[in-house]
Design a protein that fits this description.
Elements (H helix, E strand, L loop, with lengths): L2 E8 L10 E7 L6 H10 L5 H20 L4 E2 L4 E9 L13 E10 L1 H8 L3 E3 L6 H11 L1
Parallel strand pairs: 1-6
Antiparallel strand pairs: 1-2, 3-4, 4-5
C-alpha cells in the first residue's frame, strides 16, 4: 500500500514576506496496534500471537530502562533508539546546572533495512491542498 500525501500551503516563519509554498504532508492510513502486529508476526512465523505479545511486552519494559541507564539500543539494520537532551545554555561550564535541561527525548535513527523500505515506498497524492491555517493547526496537534 502506498504512503498517501496531500499538499499543505505554508509560509516561512523567518521570512513572512516571502510567498507561501506548497509542501507534501503524509496522511495516515489508520493505526497498527500491538495485537495486530503480533497477529501479523504469527502469520509469517511459527510463533503464536500470545508468545509474540509476551516478547513485545518485555521489549516495551526493557528498552526504556536501557535508555534510562544511558545506553543506545541497537536493533541491527532496523535502527537504534537513543536519548537526546534539550534545554537552555549557560554562559560558562561552571554556571551550568541540570535545571537548564528541560526536555529528555527518545530519538529513533533508522537503520539500513528500515531506511531502504521507507525510501522505496510508493507515494500517492490523495486530495487537494490544505490551506495554510489548517496545516498550522494540524502541525500544532501533532506536537
Amino acid at each position: 500500500m502506498p504512503i498517501e500525501y496531500s499538499l499543505a500551503e505554508r509560509g516561512n516563519p523567518g521570512k513572512p514576506t516571502e510567498p507561501k509554498k506548497f509542501y507534501a504532508t503524509a496522511r495516515s492510513q489508520g493505526e497498527a496496534t500491538v495485537r495486530g502486529i503480533a497477529e501479523r508476526i504469527n502469520q509469517m512465523s511459527t510463533v503464536s500471537t500470545i508468545d509474540v505479545m509476551a516478547v513485545l511486552e518485555a521489549f516495551f519494559q526493557t528498552v526504556p530502562r536501557e535508555l534510562a541507564d544511558g545506553r543506545i539500543v541497537r536493533f541491527g539494520d532496523f535502527g537504534s533508539f537513543f536519548v537526546s537532551l534539550q534545554g537552555e545554555g549557560a554562559d560558562s561550564e561552571k554556571e551550568f546546572n541540570v535545571a537548564l535541561i528541560n526536555n529528555v527525548r527518545v530519538q529513533f535513527r533508522p537503520g539500513r533495512l528500515f531506511e531502504q523500505t521507507i525510501q522505496g515506498a510508493e507515494l500517492r497524492r490523495v486530495n487537494n491542498a490544505i490551506p495554510a491555517s489548517q496545516a498550522r493547526a494540524t502541525a500544532r496537534k501533532k506536537s
